[in-house]
Amino acid sequence: MQIVHAPHLPIRENWLARRREEVLQPELAIVDAHHHLWDRQTGRYLADELRQDTGGGHRIVSTVYVQCRSMMRSHGPDAMKPVGEVEFANGVAAMFASGAYGASRCCEAIVGGADLALGHAVAPVLEKMLDVSDGRLRGIRNPLAWHDSEAVRSSPVVPPPDLMQRRSFIDGVQTLATYGLSLDAWVYHTQLDALYDLAVQAPNVTIVIDHFGGPLGIGPYIGEQAEVRRAWTAALRRLAHLPNTRMKLGGAGLTVFGFDFAAAELPPSSTDLAAAWAPMFETCVELFGAQRCMFESNFPVDKGMFGYTVLWNAFKRLAGSASPDERAALFSGTAASTYGLDLSGDKT
Prior knowledge:
By secondary structure, this protein is an alpha/beta fold. Helix content is 34%, strand content 14%. It has a domain of 240 residues: TIM Barrel, CATH 3.20.20.140.
């Protein structure tokens, strides 16, 4: 069992069970563009738990596993320790690819955690990850979310505040282009300008902005929603002008967003979630377009605030006025093109 001190909400299955909904549009093909797996002192979310959620009625055809420091190698050079996480995720992918776990091809794409601060020296690590992933490695993510307020924490790892500006890190990101790998970036809205500068310096790398671009709602931002929205929108507008950027819609179950659904007697309904997230969703789609946006669950992190079935119902409500082509992009097409997934056998 891994000991990790993460600022995530606990999963309360009995509380989640108090909200049941019928699955909306069960025929719609979905790629869950962002989830994790782990076995920690705070709980287990491995293949069985993932299968239970993805098998709950929504048509999850594929998923993208994203770095969370699970199953790191306990031996060998530090640079190679993140290879263990890719080996682990690839093993879970093989389990689902066998068909024994249902129709979903979970962990079909893998975003690993090679240390990009190694600069160009990260190349052997990337090559090893590609080798052990059986071709499933599609991107890299490093911890980037940083804020000077102790009240703003969303990860067990707090990076240096200037990591995105360091020459070695920029070199590491640029190295991703050699291998056709993308960069996933979880940053707060206060860091979006730094992410823009990084994306400009790596034009041949697809930069995937996680979790709505992180508009903060806790600590010094309580009661400052209007100013946060202004700064967040302005920063996203700059990023959207760069053709190598993509946006993930989700992750708002993280406590840093400031939503208090977990404090209620009943879990939120999909209508509740859609109403709360509509301003973020509408802004992101307006700026980036549906062809560059994708929905994500961010499970099990967000499972402390709502269930999987309710979450995807909320996304379907948010996309209620989208055209068929836009809906297909949001739920599967953008993720497939970003992470190199073949959905030719799945019809939306």
